[in-house]
Specification:
Elements: E1 2-9, E2 12-19, H1 21-38, H2 51-57, H3 59-82, E3 91-96, E4 103-110, E5 124-126, H4 134-147, E6 150-153, E7 165-174, E8 177-190, H5 200-204, E9 212-218, E10 235-249, H6 255-262, H7 267-300, H8 308-328, H9 335-365, H10 372-385, H11 390-399, H12 403-422, E11 425-427
Parallel strand pairs: 5-11
Antiparallel strand pairs: 1-2, 2-4, 3-4, 6-10, 7-8, 7-10, 9-10
Helix pairs in contact: 1-3, 4-7, 6-7, 7-9, 7-12, 8-9, 9-12, 10-12
Length: 430
Amino acid sequence: MKVDIQETTPTQRILKIEIPAEEVSQEFQRVSSDINKRVRIPGFRPGKAPLGIIEKNYKSEIEEDVLKKLIPDYYRKAIKDAGITPLDLPQVENVNLNKDAPLTFTAKVEIRPKFDIMPYDSIEIEKKDVSIVKDEIDKVIEGLRNRLSTLENYEDGHVIENGDFVIIDSEGFIDGKPLENGKVAGYLMEIGSKGFIQGFEEKIKGCKKGDSVEINTNYPDTHQDNQNKELSGKEVVFNVNIKEVKKKILPNLDDEFAKDVGDIANFDELRKRIEEDLKAQKEAMNKESYRKDVLKKLVDSTSFDISPVMVEKELRYMLYNAKQQGQQYGKAISGDEEEKLKKEYEPIAIERVKGFLILDVIAEKENVSVSNEEAEAEIRRMAASMNQNIDELKKYIKSKEGVIENIIGRLREDKTLDIIVSKAAFKEAA
């Protein structure tokens, strides 16, 4: 094997690799023989067809298999011999393959730049409080109480006020014509929640069960159902029939309530569980905050050349996520918006790449690795959080190049950050 290495930038190398003709010829023969054993050629028994016929009929498949075998093997050998540690998969180009000739190709790789990092064994960070106050527990209990509440009908004649729930039939009209998707039946509405068009709930206050009311208001620019900008600001008339009026009945805060929440023995135990959960949540948030704090200090104190390719890759990843989120809300990102986001995201992408490179150096110093069991546990956690079948998720991860590497890389970064945080010098908040 011949290898020529070119230093194109401080963070990039191009390897020109030549694989000997005899190695190429042997691999052609091996692949052809394998195919011969599993295909049927008319007039020949399985495995007995001349290799010339196999090579002619299955030329593209043979060449593909030869490349899949030889390029990765010789690329790995080339970077090992050269002492190069790539940061990502190589960009393979200029592949030249012939059966009885040397196989040549180039592999463009991004490498870690050389830099010195600040001492990380006593980075100063502010200690965050994890204590839980009574009001925090009460707020959770109130949320649970509302979740377990029931609705009961008022007696006829009750005058509707804030906090009441009404069931209505309603139809909207603009310029005397029915509003598209403007008709509802049996719609439950909480008065005072501001969950409908402005002015709508106010007109229902003071009414009673069985009343019919005409509500005149303007169609707003920001209403969630406004898909047609031409309607913005126009007067809309709603004909509303009040079918039922209900009141919320909150459960008593007692031992029975605790059992209904989660089969908990008594109310005191419920408060204790909530306090423990809130503390665990706060500790997890603080842990993430500490990670960000130490990483920012390391990034801000370290200067080195950054690979534009890595920054561009991170930008593409960030833009992809932005587009996915936009699609979830039915909003497409235009070309102009994408360019604006690129400028907005670029400094963030640069900081992320710097952080990745710094953590990679520290991970090597601290001999940080990720076991198969840790990767498996993370995939299971991901499946649970996405409510996805674990086997289907594993199949997807296996089918997508680089996904499992990204998962392992993220776990390695987290473990490295935890080591740095464990060495930090915590100071009390002022």
